[in-house]
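Hi R.,

As promised on Friday, here is the backbone we talked about, encoded as structure tokens. Could you run it through your design pipeline when you get a chance and send me back a sequence?
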């Protein structure tokens, strides 16, 4: 049986691999530009989880999980990274900076700009991989956990609205925008 952090990592790896493989085949161009595409995909796959590290070590360093993480590091050194990553993934970190509707809207605007301004393929792939990672987190949690929990971590910055009611529409909307942006990336 896989640990929670490992299964989360595997899920993101497989979705990124499948998405960018389909994108590569859809582009029909097999040249040196694929290096930029795949490098952006790999970087974007991991970049979104930096907010877990920021939250754990800078925003909430006093919590018990940090003491556990430090103990893992002291006992196992670099070999404890997998355990540390699993601990960061498993803990309920609800107020993460990059896992919010505010960040997602900013990221979608940035993605649109990069995709339409003729930016680098590396940058385009990077923002699309970050968007993919966030969408996978949202849909996975929406399908496995109560709507209220997903609403809490996604919309914690937006107060006053009954967001649980609008969550399926929001997820459908950002997913549709992602698909449209995928066609823009395919033509780059």
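Update: got your reply. Pasting your designed sequence below so it's all in one thread:
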């Amino acid at each position: 049986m896989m640990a929670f952090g490992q299964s989360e990592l595997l899920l993101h790896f497989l979705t990124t691999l499948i998405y960018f493989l389909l994108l590569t085949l859809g582009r029909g161009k097999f040249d040196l530009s694929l290096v930029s595409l795949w490098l952006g995909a790999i970087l974007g796959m991991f970049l979104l989880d930096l907010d877990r590290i920021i939250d754990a070590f800078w925003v909430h360093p006093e919590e018990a999980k940090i003491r556990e993480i430090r103990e893992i590091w002291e006992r196992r050194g670099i070999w404890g990274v997998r355990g540390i990553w699993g601990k960061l993934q498993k803990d309920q970190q609800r107020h993460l900076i990059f896992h919010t509707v505010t960040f997602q809207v900013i990221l979608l605007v940035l993605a649109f700009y990069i995709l339409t301004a003729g930016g680098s393929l590396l940058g385009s792939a990077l923002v699309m991989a970050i968007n993919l990672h966030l969408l996978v987190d949202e849909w996975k949690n929406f399908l496995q956990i109560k709507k209220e929990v997903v609403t809490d971590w996604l919309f914690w910055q937006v107060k006053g609205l009954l967001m649980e009611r609008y969550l399926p529409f929001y997820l459908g909307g950002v997913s549709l925008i992602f698909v449209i942006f995928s066609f823009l990336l395919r033509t780059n």
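One thing I noticed while checking it: Residues 163-187 form the longest helix (25 residues).

Thanks again,
M.
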